[in-house]
Amino acid sequence: ELRAPPEKIAIIGAGIGGTSAAYYLRQKFGKDVKIDVFERGEVGGRLATVTVRGQEYEAGGSVIHPLNLHMKRFVKDLGLSTVQSSGGLLGVYNGETLVFEESSWFIMNMIKLIWHYGFQSLRMHMWVEDILDKFMRIYRYQSHDYAFSSVERLLHSLGGDEFLGMLNRTLLETLQKAGFSEKFLDEIVAPVMRVNYGQSMNINGFVGAVSMSCADSGLWAVQGGNKLVCSGLLRASRSNLIAGSVLYIEEKTRTKHTGNPAKMYEVIYQSGPETRSDFYDIVLVATPLNRKMSNITFLNFDPPIEEFHQYYQHIVTTLIKGQLNSTLFSSRALDKFDLSTILTTDNSDLFINSIGIVSSVTENDSPQPLGDRGYVWKIFSQEILTKEQILKLFLSYDYAVKQPWLAYPHYRPPEKCPSIILHDRLYYLNGIECAASAMEMSAIAAHNAALLAYHRWNGHTDMIDQEDLYEKLKTEL
Ligand SMILES: Cc1cc2nc3c(=O)[nH]c(=O)nc-3n(C[C@H](O)[C@H](O)[C@H](O)COP(=O)(O)OP(=O)(O)OC[C@H]3O[C@@H](n4cnc5c(N)ncnc54)[C@H](O)[C@@H]3O)c2cc1C
Ligand SMILES: CC(C)=CCC/C(C)=C/CC/C(C)=C/CSC[C@H](N)C(=O)O
């Protein structure tokens, strides 16, 4: 038995979370519901490009894993094209020397890895694969329309106590317990955490595994820029984009056009110089809730909605077209230096987390140098680079563009994820970032919130928080 669909739904935030929520809500609630998406900045949010000498480069979320099935589906449904993320050779610098350097010969690489670290890179690959295998169960659950009322229940359904327990231990503890050596952790794992999450191995084990999965082959991106997925989803869901900053959300009783009173949410927002408001049956918040990032106040809720204080890691992306000062990293001159990405170990004297050559969002093959002044390099650092620091890294450069971010949560296990259900029909998507922040995680949270909102609207409690789903669905084949 289905109740009449809601009349109006509001989504706050037009990043990948908000726009994929619009897409899934349209699928579930049908064509008649009016969906408004509020965005105070650019559509795409943390998926954004910057322009260097007329070409666009990803400055935020850039790579997508081959097993990120929601992202894959969006690209297919929206008729977008993909580009493979260029590989290139990678080195690891410890502040004095390159402690590891890839070779262009596959066999040589294997020998080097075994020589330095025994079979630990193979064991690491197997550790990540086992977690990914369990993680993939979410697609099965969601394709059968099952929803979860908390991030913890969602993770528990994927692999039980052990899987959920990854949130409560640091990656370092987990991998030390699994017998990985200090050398492998310092020279391989820590540099991967620094390039991806700008943090040490003290992040939780789950986000550590997500980060390590970036070492898999087949990473890809959307041709023209990953943010095209967001604008495409907005269009495909026939949502109404409202350019404005949401200030307050308040629950109020309204008389509907049927003459009946109903509890609704008033969304009060600033659009240009004006403060406006509108009423909604359901609201989804698709932005991190904290003062610095969204500054939304919940008014007159009983019981009150808690304040969120999740601290987000400050990261700066700098794109520079120039000639690398390769002698900073090795004694070889530039023409003999064949590394295209340099990661760094956890050394507080280093002022960069990583540096690597990047392709523009339209280049389909290996990155090309722009004219005679070198490639475009992407640098991740904790602080904005000074001119002196840039001049240490480059022999010469002719353009630099800097983009600071409050990028992802500062992970500090044990993690307690914020609630998904903030109030009766008020949902929060970005709590999932406390497990791991990635485009696919926001898409999973969006699909889950759309299913949860739909089942709760229709009273389908049997579709929420089902135990032993994996076993149940196995026998349903
Ligand atoms: C530098 C960097 C590199 C990354 N690299 C990768 C990567 O390679 N692969 C990957 O998968 N992930 C990556 N990520 C993570 C990924 O980008 C994010 O997890 C994802 O984009 C988050 O999407 P979201 O929609 O949940 O949030 P956001 O993209 O932050 O969207 C929230 C939106 O809400 C809007 N908003 C906020 N407050 C209000 C308000 N009061 N009123 C109206 N609108 C509001 C914001 O303007 C924003 O557009 C990276 C992130 C960064 C910063
Ligand atoms: C959710 C799962 C199973 C996999 C996602 C893996 C993935 C693509 C994680 C992204 C991690 C992240 C935040 C990377 C930031 S930096 C990316 C890249 N190295 C760059 O240079 O831009």
UniProtKB/TrEMBL annotation:
It holds the Pfam family NAD_binding_8. It catalyses: S-(2E,6E)-farnesyl-L-cysteine + O2 + H2O = (2E,6E)-farnesal + L-cysteine + H2O2; [(2E,6E,10E)-geranylgeranyl]-L-cysteine + O2 + H2O = (2E,6E,10E)-geranylgeranial + L-cysteine + H2O2; an S-polyprenyl-L-cysteine + O2 + H2O = a polyprenal + L-cysteine + H2O2. It is found in: Lysosome. This is Prenylcysteine oxidase 1. Its cofactor is FAD. Its main location: other. Its EC number is 1.8.3.5. InterPro entries: FAD/NAD-bd_sf, Prenylcys_lyase, Prenylcysteine_Oxase1. Prenylcysteine oxidase that cleaves the thioether bond of prenyl-L-cysteines, such as farnesylcysteine and geranylgeranylcysteine. Only active against free prenylcysteines and not prenylcysteine residues within prenylated proteins or peptides. Involved in the final step in the degradation of prenylated proteins, by degrading prenylcysteines after the protein has been degraded. Keywords: FAD, Flavoprotein, Glycoprotein, Lysosome, Oxidoreductase, Signal. It is an enzyme of class 1 (oxidoreductase). Signal peptide: none annotated. PANTHER family: FARNESYLCYSTEINE LYASE (PTHR15944), PRENYLCYSTEINE OXIDASE 1 (PTHR15944:SF3). GO terms for cellular component: lysosome; very-low-density lipoprotein particle. GO terms for molecular function: FAD binding; prenylcysteine oxidase activity. Residues 100-466 form the Prenylcysteine lyase domain. Belongs to the prenylcysteine oxidase family. GO terms for biological process: prenylated protein catabolic process; prenylcysteine catabolic process.
